[in-house]
């Protein structure tokens, strides 16, 4: 199953996330099929950049977003 989820990057106590499309069996920070955005909760307001066209493309093909990604997609008006 393909999932849209967050991959953690950045330093210790300074998380920055990439929004990735990956196989559900791969590790959190493992190989991804495609990078479709980024999320930085450290900024005020939080930085959310998601490629809407690619997100819709993967959702149409059955990719399941994780709970945090679903909330980000709603904030961006994609879902």
Kindly describe this structure.
- The chain is an alpha+beta fold and 79 residues long.
- Helices cover 24% and strands 42% of the residues.
- The chain is built from 2 helices and 5 strands, in the order ββββαβα.
- The chain has helices at 52-60, 67-76; strands at 2-11, 14-23, 34-40, 47-50, 64-65.
- The chain has a 5-stranded mixed β-sheet.
- β1 and β2 form a beta hairpin.
- It is globular, with a radius of gyration of 12 Å.
- It starts with a strand and ends with a helix.
- The mean pLDDT is 94.
List key phrases describing it:
79 residues; single chain; globular; alpha+beta; five-stranded mixed sheet; 5 strands; 2 helices
Secondary structure elements and their pairing?
Layout: E1 2-11, E2 14-23, E3 34-40, E4 47-50, H1 52-60, E5 64-65, H2 67-76
Parallel strand pairs: 1-5
Antiparallel strand pairs: 1-2, 2-3, 3-4
Low-confidence blocks of residues:
none
With strands numbered from the N-terminus, the spatial order across the biggest sheet is 4-3-2-1-5
Give the fraction of residues assigned to helices.
10-25%
Number of strands: 5
Please report which band the strand proportion falls in: under 5%, 5-15%, 15-25%, 25-35%, 35-45% or over 45%: 35-45%
Number of helices: 2
Radius of gyration: 12 Å
Structural class by secondary-structure content: alpha+beta
Estimate the mean pLDDT confidence.
Answer: 94
**Shape verdict:** globular
Biggest β-sheet strands, sense, barrel: 5 strands, mixed
Our measurement of the CA-to-CA distance between the termini, rounded to an integer number of angstroms, reads: 20 Å
Query: What is the succession of H and E elements?
Result: EEEEHEH
